[in-house]
Amino acid sequence: MNSKVEIKTKEDHGSWYDNNIDPYKGLAEIIAVTLKNALISQKISFVDVPYRSKTKKSFLKKIKDKLSEKDYSPTSMTDLAGIRVITLIEADVQKVCNLISSMFNVHTEDSINKSEKLGEEKVGYRSVHFVCDVGKEREKLPEFSAYKGLCFEIQVRTALEHAWAEIEHDRGYKLIGKLPSYLNRRFKLLSGLLESADMEFNRLTVEIEDYKNNLNNDIEENKLDYELTTVGINQLIRSLAKVIIENLSGLPVQRLS
């Protein structure tokens, strides 16, 4: 890549894109595959890990928008390779964020948590955006050596946050300019509902795990006065099976969960 060439016109920008985008296509794919394998090995639940390289149309639009504000060049663009990690619940977002921080070199000055930016009184688009490069150690590996020094963006969001982003931004349903107040209010209300649903799903997941753990404890203490559910019956059968196996073998076994 010849990043030192002076680029002034739309044609220059288009030529830069044509000559430099291919490595970013490979970078997006290899980072997505690497992340997916890491999520599986760490047993972190996720919906999908889609990836993309920036289209030429999107690239040229961003250049035009940025140049209206300040000096900007294609080499300043950090999202030519983009990856998303879509989780089921909010609790897994932080796990994914910790994993990303441990795997890649994160550019903290360019990364942002959109939820924190909203503050306490606003609702809207929520997601965590990381700008990274592969890092000193990983770039020594043959499969990553071609991507030394190249930046990529990873967005981490829940499935409901992703649904909101698709409606509000990615699918182009948002009108150009300011919406009428009554439509804008409905957008904000919808965003608030999705955020509340996200929080409730997260709480339910935690409470279901607590319920299962409490069942195990109650069964071991012969406290069987609880609502009859399939979960309760399964836990009881598992507990009885453990006792039977221990009695037959005379050897302790690990607690079934």
Name the CATH homologous superfamily of the largest domain: Beta Polymerase, domain 2
Helix/strand-derived category reads alpha+beta
CATH topology of the largest domain: Beta Polymerase, domain 2
Order of helices and strands: HEHEHEEHEEHHH
Q: What percentage of the residues does DSSP assign to strands (E)? A: 5-15%
- How would you sum up the global shape? elongated
**Name of the CATH first level of the largest domain:** Alpha Beta
Radius of gyration: 25 Å
Largest pleated sheet: 6 strands, mixed
**CA distance, first residue to last residue:** 55 Å
Q: On the 0-100 scale, what is the average pLDDT?
A: 79
Helix content: 40-55%
- What is the number of beta strands? 6
Low-pLDDT ranges: 1-5, 118-124
Instruction: Based on the coordinates given, report the CATH architecture of the largest domain.
Output: 2-Layer Sandwich
Number of helices: 7
Number of domains: 2
Q: Keywords, please?
A:
single chain; 257 residues; 6-stranded mixed beta sheet; Beta Polymerase, domain 2
